[in-house]
Amino acid sequence: MGKITPQILVTFISINKTVGSTIHNQLYEQLKNGIYEGMLRSGDRMPSSREMSVELKISRNVVIQVFEQLRMEGFFETQTGSGTFISKNADKFPSSKRLITHPVQKPGHSTANPYGLNDVFKEHISEWEPLHPFQVSIPLIPEFPFHAWTRISTSVHKNMAALHLGYDDAQGYLPLRKALCDHLRISRSINCDPETMLIVNGTRQGLHLTAEMLLNKGDQCWMEDPGYPGATSALRRFGGQICPIPITNDGMDLDFAMQHYPKSKLAYVSPSHQFPIGNTMPLNERIKLLNWARDNQMWIIEDDYDSEFRYNSRPIPALQGMDTNGNVIYSGTLSKVLLPALRLGYMVFPTEAMARQFATAKSVIDGQSNIITQAIVCEFIRQGHFSRHIRRMRLLYKKNQDDLVSLVNQHLAGLLTPVPVEAGMHLLAWLPPDINAEVIANEALKEGLIIHTLSQYSIKYDHPNGIILGFTGFSFAQMEAGILLLKKVLSKGVHG
Description:
It contains 14 helices and 14 strands. Strand 4, helix 7 (229-237) and strand 5 form a beta-alpha-beta unit. Helix 2 (49-56) packs across helix 3 and helix 4 (146-158) packs across helix 11 (371-382). By secondary structure, the chain is α/β, with parallel strands linked by helices. It is globular. It has helices spanning 23-36, 49-56, 60-72, 146-158, 174-187, 203-214, 229-237, 254-260, 283-296, 352-365, 371-382, 385-411, 437-446, 476-495, and strands at residues 76-79, 83-86, 197-200, 220-225, 241-248, 251-252, 266-269, 299-303, 328-333, 345-348, 417-419, 426-430, 452-453, 466-470. It has 3 domains: 23-92, Orthogonal Bundle (Arc Repressor Mutant, subunit A), CATH 1.10.10.10; 119-130 and 144-386, Type I PLP-dependent aspartate aminotransferase-like (Major domain) (Aspartate Aminotransferase, domain 2); 387-495, Aspartate Aminotransferase, domain 1 (Alpha-Beta Complex). An 8-stranded mixed β-sheet has the order 3-10-9-8-7-4-5-6, with helices on both faces. A 4-stranded antiparallel β-sheet has the order 11-12-14-13, with helices on one face. The longest helix has 27 residues, at 385-411.
């Protein structure tokens, strides 16, 4: 018989049933922190879910859910017939949460053409965008809780004299920063407080601020390929040298990046849900990225653009929550969760000093974000509407994706192969190898459809037969009509 590993005692866990945090979150955070702090080590065997539930006097179902979440995230491993063990990668996890400050570098210089539009702006759309299938990153606007929003808005306007209506702190409305930090700590495992957060006018402003503050001309920047064009243009605008990194099943190919661009100053990643392919960076790759950034003084820009919408499990914790060396700048948005027209996003920095430097830069560019909108969003969060809206949309969006996949399989079998996603607001679909996605997208536009191609997001590594279908912003009837139009277009493409 093989050696039986004795199970560990988890005497450091204490569940308080009277505090605001749920039992699930308390158990999850304490087990995860136990691994970070070395109290739980690689190969340790955990008590069974039944034993732990009895010991802690909590529901066994809660213990099972927490164990499964930690297993999925790579902290736990299960061996059939033997039990649950701490991951073999646990010894590589950071053991301290002390932050090391980094000086903010002087901004680089724009390469704008003095006789016309800067080249980095030429591919961007500035006019009104229609809401047609299958536009990406569009929330289901008719399901927005307008009644609650209107009631809160009326109250804020009625009492707006109590707000500071002069020039306010460019770092953002303090109560909103507090509300967002509370939300992020619970939902995304983010280490933040209001002093390390900056409110911005959307993710794009945050990216341009970051590039201006951190890059000098010629600095190498790892960029996901395919990836978000808004990040590429921001880095280029301020002199960054774009280093396209191919995407694997584990997200950005870190080995490729380290081998080909070892002197990179900055890395742009979307680890929880890679844009636009949709892969999730696993725990061992996250550790590898953080260790490289620590050893090579590289900044990591984590774009967490739609990770609230995870359909088959709890949202994956953010990379920022694992960063113990102050290399990660976290970027989030309210546009995808609420309404694009709000133009509100937020950034979380490693230190208060860095947040203040960025706030100063923002004040030079446009001052504070709209105080009235910030106050409304703050109350929307504090009164619980934000969390309820996310939970409701998560269910609706999952059904929308299921419906879209069913429609594609029903009407476009052999012409289009959908790839369902675990999270996000769009899915990737593959055309037959001999059909060019750009041609199909152009023809679809004539029929009133918006089809994004994977090539639109590529820098060097092209995928000519991939298309992207947004599924969150449309009703079943709209998607069905759109698929029938796409069938018409594809039939012409195949037989024409």
